[in-house]
Amino acid sequence: MDIETPILRAKPNWPSNRSISLPRTIRACAPAQDLRGQSVAVVGLGKSGRAAARLALARGASVLAIDQNENLGLLEQDPAFLKHRGSLRTILGDFDEEQLESVDRVVVSPGVPVEKYGLSSLWDLGKQVMSELDFAAEILPKSIKILAVTGTNGKSTVVTFAGQMLDRLGIEAFVGGNLGNPLSEAAFQCLTSPSSKPKFQVAVVEVSSYQMEIPSEHFCPSVAVVLNLTPDHLERHKTMRDYAKAKCRVVSHMMNAKLGILPFGNPYLDEVIRQYASELNIAWIGAFPGVKIDMDAKIGSLEVPTLGIFSQLQLGALKAMGTHNYYNAAVASLSVLGLSVGVDIQAVGSTVDALRAPPHRMQIVHKDIRRITWVDDSKATNVDATYAGLMGLKRQKSVILLGGIAKVLDGQDSNGFERLVEPLKYHRCVITFGSSASSIQKTLSDNGLSIPCIRAANLKDAVKYGRRMAKQGDTIVLSPGCASFDEFRNFEHRGMVFRELAFS
Q: For residues 432 and 403, is the Cβ–Cβ distance under 8 A?
């Protein structure tokens, strides 16, 4: 998951020819004031941007907060920022890009491409332009070990599993990044804590490709995972090679164990990772050194000789649905071992039965009186995520709901849904819905789909048809393979509506 980013339409609410005088910096209450006397512009005021603005103020800076969306509230009027009003100014809508030239540094939220607002030009000219992730890591105590997880699909699940393992083992960990709380929130908590002892031992951070567009200097994981790489977000990255370059930046500045975990045999990642290979302990997903799964025995084998890891992980107690989650659990286990925080494979293995996947990832949301199981996999916003879910359902006859806005594929005329024809043959039927319903139906039909395929106008109708087609004991699975913005705010909203429809 990587994030889905809606398009904002800016309307001017500030004259572009008006000069901006940044407010005089005042002393924040934080014990560290490393940015006192400096000015910081934060571009993009979503969750990450707001957290970065609060962190900048706590570090003693004056802040210019900027967002295209003039319907947002001014930060100066937010209760969380009231004590910093003298050091803060918010600009919503259009603004003069030259205003960014007058600040000491620019912090960019993940939803803002570096091509906008002249950011790439500022960076080329030597202006300090940095991601929210790097801005947070700059002030994070160096004793905190970072586990960073990226990839097209599955990263939220691996981050969640690793966080649950550490929690069960009594290790204080921040879990967030692209998932949940931004890393700037962890940095703020550490900065403002009255204790001299760091608040966390570990930071488990989900990292999106957007967060890695600007190379990092301070974000230095001990363990970095690139789970997979398949076509997604190409409207922003343009090519698979550029997408791979963004993902692989997660291993560009590592410390401690320097364990890099990557999928075996991905040509785009293999090409890019060569420039970092000599500095890493590389482990492969699906080969040794690395992690392999015996699905029949439900055992994961973890081998990284350079770090002295030779372990067998019992996975039979895993309750998360779908065979792909066995790999997610094994990768999370190897990552936790690689952190060297005083736990062994027996301790890690004892947590497997308690692992729970995050919402909207092959999540069972209802079992009705006809013994039909309803599964929400709304987080499957691309074909490869849907494929992974379907591969874990071969033995369970299902009605599969596909639809939304199909994503762009690099250099291909197809929407990619032909890849689902093979795993779909095990199931009851397919129902397509939303703005790409017709094109998905046509792709499946043209490529030899052997089960019925029904087209619905929207998710509500798709659920109605699904209920009619399902037989006693079947599963109805929402695994759309598409973005959600034709009908919903985001994939979470889509999943919540599906759950409500399941109970209706």
A: yes
